[in-house]
């Protein structure tokens, strides 16, 4: 697959690399709609991921390759580049304001807006690094614009306006490098290149809460297997992101211990009660057993109460210590009965204001496969594809004087950026040997070379 062009119907390949499963989606944007050409879901055969982080890179890579092969057979062409989303136990966010002088009044171009966004990401990273007292290295995995300004006045869209100064308020999000590195390595071993990286709640909100609803104070909870990802909208913007290292897997573990079964069987029991009042299974002794839905809900009650309580508290914390007006829940972990009611209770809002959302938020999504899934599990995978059209966050790997470093691709990279990443390295243009890997574009290579000549 060629790199998708944001202005054409070229395919975009998105991968939701989750704790319990990997979901691949291939599609393209057509005007204001997104067409899903093919989907593929594969569950991990072992617990290769925990709490949203890869533990067994090889196993996850093999699963990615399987999903990719199946999708290639469906779409009839090779898939080489992929969009992914990151999650993790340790999410950090920075809210920042950035100004850019246009050196006299001029018409604002897409390039000007991209440069403004890049300045904001760089400023947020500088602020974050000043406060980062841990030994962990963090990388920006996504950002959201809260407000744009033109000559100091709020503006929804800066493009094509004449301005002397443009500004932005934005939220930049950061995760530890081991989370990012693990994702990139698994994708690389599967023979793919990363076209875009975003944060899971950013991806989910692309589809679940469109711009027309963001004037309302709404929370989105993406309850997966390992993490519960939260985002908040208000006054037309996304105002906050958060993550909790508690989700559906803790409920599965409760069932496994109670029923004396392995994790996979416990997961089947948990999903079984969504459809049937009684689920049959065999325990580790090979004995046939039955369990009712009410009994399962009783077994997981305490952990589900804790999940709901933590989600509600996090929402209030992110929303200025007050509840939101409504809550949308997506992801498989939030589908279990009584979860949404518990979240509503802890927030102090009416139960009908907290609900699982799936097909209801896919009004502008067309599916070419008759049996395509349209439930809450598919919101984030489709959102990962949609995010490609909104922003392109990517890292490139640079070998500088035989030392491999990772740089955030802001389209303005120079040799000095690689040098600054290397400790005790001095830049000598006639000796520096620079090569790029990881799918970097040839125009970046050219840009690097041109900047070396200018310097």
Which key features would you list for this structure?
6-stranded mixed beta sheet, 5-stranded mixed beta sheet, alpha+beta, 455 residues, disordered C terminus, 33% strand
Question: Could you explain how this protein is built, in words?
Answer:
- By secondary structure, this protein is an alpha+beta fold.
- About 35% of the residues lie in helices and about 35% in strands.
- The strands form six sheets. The protein has a six-stranded mixed beta sheet, with helices on both faces.
- Helix 1 packs across helix 3 (about 175-190), helix 4 crosses helix 9 (about 380-390) and helix 5 packs across helix 6.
- The largest sheet has its strands arranged as 11-6-1-2-3-19
What does the oligomeric state look like here?
A: single chain
- Main beta sheet, described? 6 strands, mixed
Measured by DSSP, the beta-strand proportion falls in: 25-35%
Helix residue percentage: 25-40%
Uncertain regions spanning at least 5 consecutive residues:
423-446, 448-455
The number of strands is 22
- Which structural class best describes the helix and strand composition? alpha+beta
So how many helices? 11
On the 0 to 100 scale, the average pLDDT is: 84
Shape summary: globular
What is the first-to-last residue Cα distance?
37 Å
CA-atom Rg in angstroms: 23 Å
Brief synopsis:
The protein contains eleven helices and 22 strands. By secondary structure, it is an alpha+beta fold.
Draw up the topology in text:
Elements (H helix, E strand, L loop, with lengths): L11 E6 L3 E10 L2 E11 L5 E2 L2 E2 L2 H19 L5 E6 L5 E16 L2 H22 L6 E13 L2 E3 L6 E15 H13 L3 E7 H9 L9 E6 L4 E7 L2 E8 L3 H12 L3 H10 L5 E5 L5 E5 H26 L7 E5 L8 H9 L6 E3 L8 E3 L11 H12 L4 E6 L2 E6 L6 H7 L12 E4 L4 H13 L1
Parallel strand pairs: 1-6, 3-19, 6-11, 12-17, 17-18
Antiparallel strand pairs: 1-2, 2-3, 4-5, 7-10, 8-9, 8-10, 12-13, 13-14, 15-16, 20-21, 20-22
